[in-house]
Amino acid sequence: MGVLLGVTGHAVLRVISGLRRPKQLGQVEEVYMYDAYERFWHWLQTITIVILLFTGLIIHRPDMFGAFSFRYMVTIHNVLAFILVVNAALSLFWHLVSGEIRQYIPRPYGFFDNAIVQAKYYLQGIFKGNAHPFEKTKAKKLNPLQQVTYFGLLNVLLPLQIITGALMWGVQQWSSVVGLFGGLPFLAPFHSLVAWLFASFIVAHVYLTTTGVTVFDDIRAMVTGWEKVEIHDEGEPVEAGEPSAEEPMMRPIPGESQA
Q1: Which of 12, 98, 100, 104 has its CA 20 to 30 A from that of 137?
Q2: How far apart are CA 175 and CA 184, in angstroms?
Q3: Distance (Å, rounded) from C-alpha 240 to C-alpha 108?
Q4: Mean pLDDT calculated for residue range 37-57
Q5: Between helices 158-169 and 70-98, what is the axis angle to 10°?
Q6: Residue 12 falls within a domain, yes or no?
Q7: How far does the chain reach from its first CA to its final CA, in angstroms?
Q8: Is the pLDDT of residue 170 over 60?
């Protein structure tokens, strides 16, 4: 509820400030940002997690959702959990082999300064029509706050959710092991807590996709692979430690040049 209120309040302020002070875009180009597998992995993970949250809510509160078959929901939940684990394993392999894993690892040098800059943009700059502080490229898709969020999400929350879910699923077969972790009285509420954290992330994540060049461009980019990005002036400060990369696939957008 707190995340919904925060997102709603932030959105209202963006709309009001946008009417008073429209955002001035600089040079905008369309970059091939997301490969086909990257998009497939993202959408499969998204759909799986959303349905897991829904079925998990029904399992947690069957008294409120009597219209659904409890046994059927448990089966769907378990099957989707298996799909989530397989998808996560395959995506880890792909990220390691392709080197894309570097996108999700925050670099210590200059990280906190850059994170503060990004936070100030979300809290102040976005209401003034300022451009994003860090240029988004195929080699550097995530800003500092996104990096630390995904790092925690994929390396802490997701493994915890998988482990606690597996222990609850095998509570009868592995009762002694489950007992070492506090049994169901601890695992069930902890599993639910992590699920609510995932739900909060999804709400915030979907909202932040509207902060791109256009409201729906980030969503469109995860479908087509092509994303409109603001090109920073040469010599403009960029994130410390940004790696070099090959020239990305890029195409200019007619009519969207220097404002």
Answers
A1: 12
A2: 10
A3: 10
A4: 95
A5: 140
A6: no
A7: 39
A8: yes
Number of other residues whose CB lies within 10 A of the CB of residue 255:
6
Q: How many CA atoms lie within 13 A of 19 on its CB side?
A: 5
Q: Tell whether 18 is covered by a domain.
A: no
Residue 8 lies in a domain: no
Report the 10 Å Cβ neighbour count for 56.
23
**Number of structural domains, the chain?**
1
Taking a C-beta distance cutoff of 8 angstroms, is the pair 88, 158 a contact? yes
pLDDT tens per residue across span 6-24: 999 999 999 999 888 777 7
Q: What is the CATH number of the domain that holds 192?
A: 1.20.950.20
The two three-digit tokens of residue 163, written as one number: 């482990």
Using CB atoms within 10 A of its CB, is residue 143 exposed (0-12), middle (13-18) or buried (19+)? buried
Mean pLDDT score, 169-179 = 88
Residue 10 belongs to some domain of the structure:
no
Structure tokens given for 186: 């601890």
E-strand stretches of 85-124: none
Kindly state the greatest CA–CA separation across the chain. 66
Q: Please, are residues 11 and 246 in contact by the beta-carbon 8 Å criterion?
A: no
Mean pLDDT of the chain: 87
Q: What length is written for the chain?
A: 259
- Per-residue confidence (pLDDT) for residue 254, from 0 to 100: 53
Q: Which domain holds residue 237?
A: 29-119+132-249
Angle at which helices 183-208 and 158-169 cross, to 10°:
140
What CA–CA distance (Å, rounded) separates 68 from 124?
45
